[in-house]
Amino acid sequence: xxxxxxxxxxxxxxxxxxxxxxxxxxxxxxxxxxxxxxxxxxxxxxxxxxxxxxxxxxxxxxxxxxxx
Length: 68
Prior knowledge:
By secondary structure, the chain is of the alpha+beta class. The chain has a single domain, classed as Alpha-Beta Plaits (2-Layer Sandwich), CATH 3.30.70. The protein is built from 2 helices and 5 strands; from the N terminus they run E-E-H-E-E-H-E. This is 4Fe-4S ferredoxin-type domain-containing protein.
């Protein structure tokens, strides 16, 4: 893991790859993600159902759903 990664039990986000397009935020059915300083951030990981929409829709491959 590098310092520009957020790793949780459910998601890994590589901020270096994120271009801040917000597609993952729009497709998340539980509003787990948000944008801060033009990068995706986890707003409420407890709501994550690991549906995979964020990973599937991210054009930059910046999000990985763990343990799905």
